[in-house]
What does this fold into?
Amino acid sequence: RTGQSERALGNYESGLKIREKMLADDPQDMLVQRDVSVSHIKVGDVARQLTQLQDALTHYESGLKISLQLIAVDPLDAQAQRDVSVLHDRIGNVLLQKRQPKEALEHYESGLQIAEKLANADSRDAQAKRDLGISHDMLGKVLLQLAQSQEAMKHYRMGLEINEQIANDDPSNAQAHRDLSISYNNLGDVLLQLNKPEEARVHYDMGLKIIEKLADADQSDTQSQRDLSVSHERLGDLLRQMGQLDESIIHYEFGLKITEKLAELDPNDARAQRELMIGNYKLGGYYLKALKNENAKERFQAGMDTLERMSARGQNVEQCELEKALLHQMMEKCQTVPEEAK
It folds into this structure.
């Protein structure tokens, strides 16, 4: 996947250079100006995927500057306004990854103001509604990181209301239902931070039910399958915190089975392989805590096997060696921890 992203980055950079040359030939061409802005967004998106965060930020800021210039010429240009809102969110995302939540908050708030204006201008515009829901979710996320849980809750609830409306208006819209599932999980996260685990579980369960339907409806949709795995893991984490270890293990096992299938689909997908290793490591740890040593050893060995395959393919070799040493320690621990009474 990294190789594909690098090739995509090269193609988008070439396209950006062509459009910039066109703009130099006719600086007043507003259509070409927007094309240049969109090219900056595409280059920024791929740079962010490759964790080239400063490059991504530079391209997003360049796109934002152009879009603001377009609005200055035509304040009623709804597309340019949407571009500005989207770019504020993109910049916020990068700043969040750079661990600058206060700076990210400023951009998310700017994006929300525009998204609200566009959604209010046309109540039938589903895309404008979705943009508004995303803006509320992004604000909720950064506020949660800033420990402003009540404010985060307010924005997450508003995002949930919007996503419920979109999903109800178009029951066949899979993306709308995925957004709704994410909203329930977001609210679960903030309720957990507010030390309300039972309420958090209700929301996690709702999110899980929605994503289960999507995953069952299209088993070839890897995004839905991954979302389903993450939902099971989220519930597993919550139940473990609530002291319900046996029930948490059931969810971890469900999630791991899905992760195994996704890893088998593309052995060269380093992210999927790493998620498989982490899933085995976590489940092994919970088996060990439950004194199920043989089950734990089996999971740790499966994680070790995944790391061996990744090393053989040249995927994150140094990291793999460190993690193999950790898994080896855990396997040794299986020999020293007393086993569950037969």
In short: The chain has a mean pLDDT of 92. The chain is about 85% helix and 0% strand.
